[in-house]
């Protein structure tokens, strides 16, 4: 079955650009930065995650024929036996695993997925309803609390898993189970008389439905997604009505405001990013999808305002987002505390999803800059170099208390970073008519269909450690194509040559992408050279936590200082404004990485004599200084870490 | 009944100094700084607190004959109908109110206290047990969970209330109720065979028992306090044993470590202040009391180590303590975040209790410095200038989200700051043989008995706004006495004159107190003059949050900048190291206070054009600057506040 997306691409004129991302399975990381990360996730992360899901009891929830008592091994630390949304976790694991299957068939993984699918099919209710908690524990309460209990969120993740598994293997069984579940939702929810006018407080089903629509071409699937997004935030709130039906006072809602779920006001009227960060990113991803599919400029314009609000006022320099643990999300603008940063891995991954979608309808480098920022920093920091330890919170400063864990009672992040990396290829290239957009740099080999031709692209590069990229063109017959090459937002000096001839591309740069149109033939070679000095970054004065502080970034990679490298807490360092910082490739550092070295000053604690406050500022002494990529922190000895360093 | 303390003072030689604080009722604040605070607390705070306790249902818990259903008005925001430790709240209110009664008899307040006492007496179980929760709801569960349920903590506060009410009015009824309750505890707990070897996880009963002992002279009361302190932290833990008796796994303890309650190791082996801050301060207060009463050098030495650890590594510049909300207490050393500071009002008040007790056994200015710091800063900030709004957390930085509240579902702080202020007189002077120690400065008139003589002391001073104090001596017959006059730790230049004659006192200064011994006669006058420039304070380099920041203190008063005074968030200010700061008395500011004025720089947000990060640091423009005493913040318009200001 070909996707409806491809069929629609040649249709009537559309409001937006409609780039089509290359399929992830057609991009191979056979060398360079992403090679070992991809292999680690495929060979370590995917199998160990299944092992954890199994041993921690997450799969046990699918034993529909057993009494739904406590799990054999209750989830710690809450003593929790089961959560309403456990289905989402193996849904995401199936999705992540599926992305590896096309190029690396794995009967063992397939068997594990099939076993889950069989249990799901067995447990699914006759009318299509599917949620392991409610079916086993309180079927009479299904659909009575969309505000808190995540039924559609869970189904959405199963649906994404089913689509990915179908695309990887051609097996329909899981997809059919989920289509029946979606049919049930269509029968139950909608603006039509007799249906419940509800929508899930944790967004996810919306973007999953667009994925389904792109596979089935069934307009009812797109219509349901559209309904959920349009209905959101309509007043009086469905959640009030629903709470009253449960005999509860809506005023007792624990999060106090539906802004927690971006349901305080219709989505097209939202201008500030609020509430739970992952929910927000999933919603905005769906809004971008629907702008794309429905040619809806009002959704695009809402997304634009929200994106500018996020990146201009609420985004960590690492691409982390959502500073607060209490709502797992946003607080006030410019509130970006470092040590207590929540900055959930899932939220950074989902910002990648949203940014990528935005770039398909509006080829603007600001979107791919955000994608690249999360990719090399705030999302990648969520997984350890060994591929089996994780962060939920991605703080920008620590005194050593933040350690990676093997598993979590709410393990949403591990499978999210896994599916991001196993599907990474799709983020590199998009095509439209006779155009190819190159969004990301990094060694890979890709196959594309453009303007009816088969195009092979190969990037040779040490990116992100170096800014030189050789892009080789493979074509069986010559073709007239436009390459739109992203000039990264962090780059102040770029050079491009074609077949050894430097070209002046500056006039062709439009919103961060340089355009080169010509008749291309097999063996042509584009060389891109992005100057990659160490950047010193300062935060807007309203970010009180970063006052008098500097962050280091080189290319797309944000740096941090770890105690283990300098033998003292980085909080004691003072960096002179003119301090020289030398980048050096350290092959021995966790698989190889560029580190920054130089001279700092250290605030001396030796002359404080037991006092905590005094009238003389600390004295300073020279101190050798080393910074490593932020995404590599907490992979070695325990200790303090700091991204925003104090300036002298 | 005279206190056993006075009787014992002339006994056998003791290890420690044993100063006796002057009774609070013998110190009158008839002018100056504390006059209006005392009057506000007596005339506004005490009556409104009773009103809140009544209207919020706290007193309803004493209706022992009614079924123990939900309260008429459940406590918000938890929907809680009743807590196990509500008795402590009216216990503390009775104590606070009682301190006002001796000099200001008030039949209405007495009637309200008598009404509570009557209900308590009526509800008390035949064996003496007294706790409204357990008696009404689950009497069979009494004494089954000392780790979590605060039974002795609540009884301790009732006991302190009973002692204070007896001392104020001579009425024995409440005291007798509580003596019966203590008899019951003595029958139930102890090291003797057949008794439970338990102790309450929330300390309080220990210091209350010493107060009771000082009234009754009954050695069993002192012995019980001693048992509780000696037993604490003995392994294997009583809390493990008790949890198993309840059928629970001790490993499921929500706070994970008994360090939360200072019960992880015997108290004499503790060297770092850990866990819940109020609990720690109440324990250490009891340890100081028992060192005093039992001549126990091991407890004194433990207190010394803990005091130095607290003040050298864990105390906010305001005297606030316990940075973390999650355990209402301590984390790691030097962890002093400003915006998320918990720094509970109760903890600062209780540090006042402890410091004061330490000074009675060891006349060292470091103890009275700490007392004075909390008094003018981190404790006083817990109550509004109007006397009926409160802070639980006393942050050192805010973006305007911290507002004072009228009442709280856990209203421990309001009554704590109330009892601190209504008994404030006791902290000013102590006597021992022919010595008088003057600990605090501030306009007052006091009556003391020293060396068998009646001594009247009067301080005329605008302290803390000015550093000049005139101390007038009133004596019916001349007396040879030593005055030990505290030279505040913040003071670098002090002058003292007697009857107009400047004296050289430097050789007499011992640990922060200058000694003047002579034959004093009626009308003698000591003048103290403490230079009071504006101090710039810097924090130890290990306090990362305060790097590159400066705090202003003048005399004992810590300053802050409020947005309402400068029209911008103080987080945007940069203070030049040589910026001149002029103190000025502002009679219109909340009853009159010295403010600091000068020129700062403001980080300019005007040229950031929607970017959040950039490679150029913020530009700076001049900005008039004003700071007010920290204890006065959040009494006017909503807005941001900062104690630690960024230096240029």
TrEMBL record, chains A, B:
Domain Non-reducing end beta-L-arabinofuranosidase-like GH127 middle: start-end pairs: 436-532
Source taxon at top rank: Bacteria
Positions of the Non-reducing end beta-L-arabinofuranosidase-like GH127 C-terminal domain: 534-645
Keywords for the protein's UniProt record, in alphabetical order: Hydrolase
Domain Non-reducing end beta-L-arabinofuranosidase-like GH127 catalytic intervals: 27-425
GO MF term list: hydrolase activity
SUPFAM superfamilies linked to this entry: Six-hairpin glycosidases
Annotated transmembrane regions: none
PANTHER family: DUF1680 DOMAIN PROTEIN (AFU_ORTHOLOGUE AFUA_1G08910)
Protein name, per record: Glycoside hydrolase family 127 protein
Organism of provenance: Rhizobium puerariae
Lineage of the organism: Bacteria, Pseudomonadati, Pseudomonadota, Alphaproteobacteria, Hyphomicrobiales
